[in-house]
Amino acid sequence: MKIATFNVNSIRSRLPVVISWLKQHKPDIMCLQETKVQDHEFPVQPFIDAGYQVAFRGEKSYNGVALASLAKPAEIKFGFDDALPPDESRLITAKIGNIHVLNTYVPQGREIENAMYKYKLEWFERLRKLFEKQFKPGDKVVWVGDLNVAPEAIDIYNAPRQENHVCYHKAVREAFKLTKQWGFIDIFRKYHPEPGQYSYYDYRTVNAVERKMGWRVDHILATAPLAKKSKDCYIDLKPRLEPKCSDHTVMAAEFI
Questions:
Q1: Which residues, other chains included, contact 52 with Cβ-Cβ below 8 Å and sequence gap of 6+?
Q2: Per-residue pLDDT tens for 196-214?
Q3: Packing angle, helices 170-180 and 115-134, rounded to 10
Q4: pLDDT tier at 32 (50, 70, 90 boundaries)?
Q5: What pLDDT is stored for residue 90 in this prediction?
Q6: What's the CATH number where 135 sits?
Q7: Contact 91, 78 (CB under 8 A)
Q8: Which residue range is the domain that position 204 belongs to?
Q9: Calpha distance 213→28 (Å, rounded)
Q10: Within 10 Å of residue 107's Cβ, how many Cβ atoms?
Q11: How far apart are the first and last CA of the chain?
């Protein structure tokens, strides 16, 4: 089984890149974030033509998540199930075969003093509670998406200068760590302990990919039973080099 994640930064702008990647690599599941489209305008037919089921929840010009799969999910849920606003355009939960898939687009946070940063930290807390309520660490669960956090210094090309960045600040790294400690293993780091591997390259940085000036904020994590069945995890830089590229690129993991 192959599972991929990709922050597309507008599905309609990036549709040719996405469909081409699906046809070439044929993942069983592909999770998309930041689709930036209302549900009635989501480009469903190209996914169907490529052989995929697709579930999605979005809003105009902002947020949005989608999940494309070869097999029809047994169940699909959007957002949280607690007493707070569900945030449906940032979270899809699906069961496909015997695997539970969570596709998340975690809030970026804007600035340390901004209310959205506090919301981001609370978002991780809510996610931890969702895991505790709905699953057990012994279940086969995969958590993927743009998590808007670089967990370690090796996940950023210039970490010493980013201590107050909302995607590297110590509070967000701790929030991510506590959520991950529920029972997740970083599949990418299982195969790539080395620095210099990034999934996001800022548009504003000239020749960022060539200069290796990026961040690893996209992730694929799995519970131990599923992690044991992994055989590879990698970042594909080709989509980031396409003429109409996202500022992120594809990360994919393979399981036996």
A1: 22, 30, 68, 69, 70
A2: 999 999 999 999 999 999 9
A3: 10
A4: very high
A5: 98
A6: 3.60.10.10
A7: yes
A8: 2-255
A9: 31
A10: 19
A11: 6
